[in-house]
Design goal:
- Catalyzes the attachment of alanine to tRNA(Ala) in a two-step reaction: alanine is first activated by ATP to form Ala-AMP and then transferred to the acceptor end of tRNA(Ala). Also edits incorrectly charged tRNA(Ala) via its editing domain.
- By secondary structure, this protein is of the alpha/beta class.
- It is built from 18 helices and eleven strands.
- It folds into two domains: 247 residues, BirA Bifunctional Protein, domain 2 (2-Layer Sandwich), CATH 3.30.930; 107 residues, no CATH class.
- It is 42% helix and 16% strand.
- Helix 3 runs parallel beside helix 4, helix 8 crosses helix 12 and helix 12 packs across helix 14.
- The structure holds adenosine-5'-triphosphate and magnesium ion (MG) (3 copies).
């Protein structure tokens, strides 16, 4: 039996909607609206936050939801769930992915949720149960929480042998959307790609052979800003399964990239660049980083297509600057590693729209808008890189040959002291990298933060070593979160 991604998605939704009376609700935007979080939508539950908290306005449609299922567009760049650094390097984490979800809002709880999940995997998708591992919350003394033995016993009563039911602590089995908000213990289902062995040590251990496919969260608490937990008015179920991972499992491959969600995009990349045909090679086996680049480019193309379609513009505001960074990285990999000719990023939009268009019809409606934004972003990026190279030449002429750039020199480049254009961090990274110049990102960000903090508090510090132009200061102030977000900083320091 061959499963297409469309079948996998439809089977999930049919199971919950037809067999168990869930209502289908369309995916919300990846750009959260008020009250749904400050980062990209990172899971299916974001749009239902008011239902968990008990704050959904009465008599609205949402207030009537008891059982819901959907396929949610998710982006994990920035915020509590940030997977950017893994993307391309492994075969299972994306910046954009689809989460197949099912919910009970104050309706059924743990027992039914586990039974439905097992039934879907075993009877409908026909996965061999002896490949599955089931984790439960092992308790957390710091939070004053006991192990979820109820959950363990449910899996036992459903016939799962004890050696495949495993306890884990808060970092794996206590789910929260962000630093505050609805949360609770969870139980997860992991799949062993190899089989005929005891793989329990490989669960949650970063092995590419044993992969988490489904998370069932038992929403019971509302985390306060002081980190303490307050019980929610009702208990809820919130589950999320990664569509791309499930497609890979059903296709018998360890790679999400060897599925119909990515193959058509790779085909276009190959045609545009003439690069060798894609293979699922990672790490040192991927000589020249060609396959990693394929993965990053295809992944990022899906991410920017969806974000722009949902109304985000590259560079605008905090999320927009994260989007622009992802696009810049995509352009770098596409042009420099895969040797794409200039102006060809836009060709990736069509295969992405085609592969996702059936479940997200807004993509084809917005396709021209997406293409325009992509074209403009690539043009601008190439133009600033060109300017940046000239600016660096100028600087070198003045300061002599350099092996590194000081934080102050980086800020000079940032605000266009040696040229007409201001430069984003991606561009500085790019042009410095071309000349093997060491960069001091830590110093750079601490200088910037000192400046941004001082204008935020409306008092100019006189002792700082650099002076930022008004325009740059304003832009930085708007984007403040980008510069205090550790993981994003990491992106720049890690090369
Ligand atoms: P992992 O431990 O593999 O990083 P997670 O525990 O962070 O996953 P959850 O927050 O529990 O993931 O999300 C629910 C499901 O969504 C996961 O079980 C997985 O199938 C899928 N998923 C999570 N993150 C990604 C991602 N970056 N790309 C693709 N699928 C993902
Ligand atoms: Mg994760
Ligand atoms: Mg996990
Ligand atoms: Mg998980």
């Amino acid at each position: 039996e061959k499963w297409s991604s469309k079948d996998v998605r439809k089977t999930f939704l049919d199971f919950f909607c037809s067999r168990y009376d869930h209502k289908f609700v369309t995916s919300s935007s990846v750009i959260p609206s008020k009250g749904q979080g400050t980062y990209f939508t990172n899971s299916g539950m974001n749009q239902f936050k008011p239902l968990f908290l008990g704050t959904a306005p009465p008599f609205t449609e949402m207030a009537s939801y008891r059982r819901v299922a959907n396929s949610q567009k998710c982006v994990r760049v920035g915020g509590k769930h940030n997977d950017l650094e893994d993307v391309g390097r492994d075969l299972t984490h994306h910046t954009f992915f689809e989460m197949l979800g099912s919910w009970s809002f104050g309706d059924y709880f743990k027992k039914d949720a586990c039974a439905m999940a097992l039934e879907l995997l075993r009877e409908v998708y026909r996965l061999p149960v002896d490949r599955l591992y089931f984790t439960y919350f092992g308790g957390d003394p710091d939070l004053g929480l006991k192990p979820d033995l109820e959950c363990r016993n449910i899996w036992r009563s459903l016939g799962i042998p004890e050696n495949r039911i495993l306890p884990f602590g808060s970092s794996d089995n206590f789910w929260d959307m962000g630093d505050a908000g609805p949360c609770g213990p969870c139980t997860e289902i992991h799949y062993d790609h190899i089989g005929n062995r005891d793989a329990s040590k490989l669960v949650n251990a970063g092995s590419p052979d044993v992969i988490e496919i489904w998370n069932l969260v038992f929403m019971e608490y509302d985390r306060q800003s002081d980190r303490s937990l307050r019980p929610l008015p009702q208990q809820h179920v919130d589950t999320g399964m990664g569509l791309e991972r499930m497609c890979a499992v059903l296709a018998g491959t360890k790679s999400n990239y060897s599925t119909d969600l990515f193959i058509p995009v790779f085909r276009v990349i190959q045609k545009e660049t003439g690069a060798p045909i894609y293979q699922d090679l990672t790490g040192s086996a991927d000589i020249g980083g060609i396959n990693t680049a394929y993965r990053m480019v295809a992944d990022h193309a899906r991410m920017f297509t969806v974000c722009i379609s949902d109304g985000l513009l590259p560079g605008k505001g905090d999320l927009g600057s994260k989007l622009r960074s992802v696009m810049h990285r995509c352009i770098q990999q596409y042009r420099e590693v895969l040797k794409a000719p200039p102006g060809h990023l836009v060709k990736l939009v069509d295969p992405v729209v085609e592969s996702l268009g059936e479940s997200f019809p807004e993509l084809s409606k917005n396709s021209q808008k997406i293409k325009d934004a992509v074209q403009l972003t690539e043009d601008r990026y190439m133009q600033t890189v060109e300017e940046g190279r000239k600016a660096l030449d100028k600087m070198m002429k003045k300061k002599g040959d350099l092996t590194y750039l000081t934080a102050e020199a980086m800020i000079d480049l940032r605000q266009g002291k040696y040229g007409n254009l201001t430069m984003s961090e991606d561009v500085i990274q790019q042009i410095a990298g071309e000349r093997n110049l060491q960069l001091n990102w830590e110093g750079y960000y601490s200088l910037l933060n000192a400046q941004v903090v001082s204008i935020d508090s409306q008092e100019q510090e006189e002792t700082t070593k650099v002076t930022l132009s008004h325009a740059v200061l304003q832009e930085l102030s708007r984007q403040r979160i980008s510069y205090t977000d550790d993981s994003l900083k990491y992106m720049y320091t890690r090369n």
